[in-house]
Inverse folding.
């Protein structure tokens, strides 16, 4: 896919080395097409890593995408250079004036806090409400999925006795949905979280449908509003080494750091990870872009409602 990205975004050079076709803004302006407009609210602390992970997956369809990054006014990131934020991110107050074909809201390392105690909770609620009338389809990932389910539908989260950490087998429960086109009967999904949502709470809400789950990691995907909202409790966007970096970062610093399950070859960190989720990650993002964004969004983007 020709990805239309800001000039000098670090992900551009990284992905070009992976033979992923990206297009900077200068070249994109010479093409007479309407790109799909995607906005990413990136709440993860390592912004550049998350940008690259998401762009890598958005690159797998023949459609041209224009990717923009949103930041919060009520929170200042501590792990990303301010120069990067000023160059590539815009405040919600600026981006809210536009309409968007698709939106992705990432996870955040705040899941053990009550939602109401998160410093940017009020701004997040405003953004979530705005997305319903300004975006054709939105993916909510990990903490954002729990936050969206809570804000829109009153679904609570629950603390886990042990961190859900590793790669877990998932089963599509509604395999005929376009989001699962090309999927196998089972697929793998990375998880890294200390809280969970319960199936019975979701099933009590008629507007919600559990569409994938795991015997070990529980509910993994929930759909609402005919695919205008997807809530994904795991991290299909993770790169092969993400859980390894997290494990080594926390080892010896926390007393609740289990070896990530189903991740290392022979459960031996020295042998490195065995990647089992990448093909389905590419399929899911491609299916979302094609069937729930491109096929549903109006040509005149201002007609989104």
């Amino acid at each position: 896919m020709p990805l239309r990205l800001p000039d000098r975004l670090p992900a551009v050079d990284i992905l070009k080395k992976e033979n992923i076709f990206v297009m900077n803004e200068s070249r994109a302006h010479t093409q007479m097409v309407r790109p799909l407009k995607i906005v990413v609210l990136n709440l993860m602390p390592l912004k550049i890593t998350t940008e690259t992970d998401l762009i890598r997956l958005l690159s797998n369809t023949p459609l041209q995408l224009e990717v923009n990054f949103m930041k919060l006014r009520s929170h200042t990131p501590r792990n990303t250079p301010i120069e990067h934020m000023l160059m590539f991110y815009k405040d919600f107050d600026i981006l809210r004036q536009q309409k968007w074909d698709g939106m992705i809201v990432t996870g955040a390392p705040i899941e053990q806090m009550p939602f109401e105690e998160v410093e940017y909770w009020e701004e997040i609620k405003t953004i979530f409400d705005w997305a319903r009338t300004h975006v054709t389809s939105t993916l909510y990932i990990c903490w954002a999925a729990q936050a969206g389910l809570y804000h829109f539908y009153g679904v609570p989260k629950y603390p886990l006795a042990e961190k859900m950490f590793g790669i877990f087998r998932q089963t599509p429960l509604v395999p005929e949905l376009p989001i699962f086109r090309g999927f196998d009967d089972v697929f793998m999904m990375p998880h890294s979280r200390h809280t969970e949502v319960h199936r019975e709470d979701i099933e009590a809400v008629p507007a919600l449908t559990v569409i994938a789950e795991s015997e070990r990691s529980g509910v993994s995907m929930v759909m609402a509003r005919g695919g205008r909202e997807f809530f994904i409790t795991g991290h299909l966007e993770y790169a092969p080494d993400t859980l390894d970096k997290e494990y080594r970062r926390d080892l010896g610093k926390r007393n609740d750091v289990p070896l990530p399950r189903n991740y290392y070859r022979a459960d031996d960190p020295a042998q490195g990870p065995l990647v089992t989720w990448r093909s389905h990650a590419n399929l899911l993002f491609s299916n979302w872009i094609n069937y729930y964004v491109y096929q549903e969004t109006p040509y005149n983007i201002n007609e989104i409602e």
Remarks:
- The chain has two domains: 1-26, 32-303.
- Residues 278-294 form the longest helix (17 residues).
- The radius of gyration is 19 Å.
- DSSP finds ten helices and twelve strands in the chain.
